[in-house]
């Protein structure tokens, strides 16, 4: 075991997870779309995420928070918040013909992300089910040609984003996308350039799709550049898997739950991430779309206390 793999402890025996920068995101307030009447207003999100004790936030879907850098800077500064990343959605498996539209979207988000002083773009691959209706849009499995398009397109995206904006892309394995299970995540990592394509490991989504988070960190730790923290309710997940419930309806059933009520256990995951010996953002994301306006804040406060108790 190397020095970087040893996690120190504080005076009461808790591990000191000082390489992890804890934050939260609009997703934890039930925000999935730039504009939706079921979502809390952006000012309320900013007020409450600060009240819950978080310092770092993500931009969420582009257009939910103000897109004017000066205005957004003023809003986050007066709440003592900072931005860790922006988020983009891509369908690069569809081939070179989608590059121009993809780049138009990515450039817009990357420009705001850079202006806010962040250094990461979280890249979410396209859903093979519609995110609102849950209707199946395409096959859940990629062909060999589509895997090639995906890998080449993501390599190009990583290079272009770094060269033009100075940002690093971290690709987010996600339920109901083509990068979901351990086999698919490993295939993607092995097919892409480690110099320009990192991984955003979402603990909840990876567990939802049957993956072992600690194993992935220990095996592909050099690729992990960012974390999303969430848990899955194992009883609801078992029913979701058995009945092939799409992700959107599964979220409405409460498949994503607050820690420590679900899986994976977060302490081993956090300690494995600390053991990588690099600074990582660890952003809480509890999918709750849609949810009652008063529900997110108490959960966020309890989650922040729980993570402090874990040493983070």
UniProtKB/TrEMBL annotation:
One Pfam family from the record: AP_endonuc_2
Single GO MF annotation: isomerase activity
Tagged with keyword Transmembrane: no
Keywords: Isomerase
InterPro entries: IolE/XylAMocC-like, Xyl_isomerase-like_sf, Xyl_isomerase-like_TIM-brl
All residue ranges annotated as the Xylose isomerase-like TIM barrel domain in the record: 46-285
Annotated signal sequence range: none
The UniProt record lists the keyword Protease: no
Protein name: Sugar phosphate isomerase/epimerase
Organism field: Streptomyces humicola
């Amino acid at each position: 075991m190397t020095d970087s793999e040893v996690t120190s402890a504080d005076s009461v025996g808790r591990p000191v997870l000082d390489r992890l920068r804890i934050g939260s995101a609009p997703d934890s307030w039930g925000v999935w779309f730039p504009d939706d009447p079921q979502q809390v207003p952006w000012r309320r999100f900013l007020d409450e995420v600060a009240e819950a004790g978080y310092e770092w936030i993500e931009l969420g879907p582009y257009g939910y928070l103000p897109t004017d850098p000066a205005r957004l800077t003023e809003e986050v500064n007066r709440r003592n918040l900072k931005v860790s990343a922006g988020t983009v959605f891509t369908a690069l498996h569809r081939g070179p013909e989608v590059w121009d539209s993809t780049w138009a979207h990515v450039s817009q988000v990357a420009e705001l992300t850079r202006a806010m002083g962040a250094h990461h773009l979280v890249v979410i691959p396209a859903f093979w089910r519609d995110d609102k209706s849950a209707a199946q849009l395409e096959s859940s499995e990629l062909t060999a040609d589509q895997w090639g398009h995906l890998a080449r397109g993501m390599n190009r995206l990583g290079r272009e984003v770094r060269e033009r904006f100075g940002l690093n892309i971290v690709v987010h394995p996600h339920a109901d996308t083509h990068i979901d299970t351990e086999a698919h995540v490993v295939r993607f990592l092995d097919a892409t350039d480690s110099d320009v394509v990192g991984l955003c490991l979402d603990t909840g989504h990876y567990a939802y799709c049957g993956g072992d988070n600690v194993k992935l960190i220990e095996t592909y730790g050099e690729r992990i550049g960012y974390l999303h923290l969430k848990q899955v309710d194992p009883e609801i997940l078992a029913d979701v898997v058995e009945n092939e419930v799409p992700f959107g309806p599964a979220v409405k059933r409460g498949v994503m739950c607050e820690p420590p009520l679900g899986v994976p256990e977060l302490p081993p995951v956090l300690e494995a991430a600390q053991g990588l010996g690099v600074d990582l953002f660890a952003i809480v994301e509890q999918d709750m779309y849609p949810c009652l306006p008063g529900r997110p804040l108490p959960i966020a406060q309890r989650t922040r206390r729980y993570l402090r108790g874990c040493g983070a």
